[in-house]
Amino acid sequence: GAGVSQTPSNKVTEKGKYVELRCDPISGHTALYWYRQSLGQGPEFLIYFQGTGAADDSGLPNDRFFAVRPEGSVSTLKIQRTERGDSAVYLCASSLGLLAGGQVQFFGPGTRLTVL
Amino acid sequence: AQTVTQSQPEMSVQEAETVTLSCTYDTSESDYYLFWYKQPPSRQMILVIRQEAYKQQNATENRFSVNFQKAAKSFSLKISDSQLGDAAMYFCAYRSSNSGYALNFGKGTSLLVTP
Question: For B105, which of A43, A104, A109 is closest by C-beta distance?
Fold first, then answer.
């Protein structure tokens, strides 16, 4: 498939555990974004990467959240010491670039995280 | 920060009819991008249409068109000849052209299409 893929599709964990969510962007897309969507809400920005570096991580709610993109392609969102309030759908998107003409973001199907 | 408001939590339309979804936004910028995304139960956000603020002409994509009123900061989506497959959540989103590349989304409008 040529679209953005995310694994796992669903993740159930217990409070206090560590989780990793993976995103595979569209091949050739240099920009990658993470959003969090709580029930009944629109997606909220967490972080985006241009290449390997985090260009803006201002949306990360606290230091329990961290994301990496070591080779400029696949990204992993890491959540430490999960809390029940972290339960949400985590969406990943990618775009060809950041500048005009490349600014359309294509989304993956999301990972539904449930913290018990 | 820019805010996006969708004042209609739910809308309903009959098949083959036309429906308009409302969106307003707050910004002090003159150059930006606006988007409508569709999210079916599968969760995947699908781009419906986009508009560059510097373009006066309203964007159109087949049965989907927008009414972009820059002075009023309004960006409504019109769906013509509604089909059952149009049923979904619709999100309006704003993106700055020069102060960050994240999308700011509204809370969404749930569209129900009845036969």
Answer: A43
pLDDT for residue B58 = 95
Residues in chain B: 115
Residue A108 sits at the chain B interface (C-beta within 8 Å): yes
- Chain pair A-B, CB pairs under 8 angstroms: 56
- At A26-65, the pLDDT tens digits run 998 999 999 999 999 999 999 999 888 888 999 999 999 9
Is the minimum CB–CB distance between B57 and chain A shorter than 8 Å? no
From B4's Cα to the closest Cα of chain A, the distance in A is: 10
b/e map of A11-35 (b: 16 or more CB within 10 Å)?
bebeeeeebebebbbbeebbbbbbb
**Beta bridge mates, A104:** none
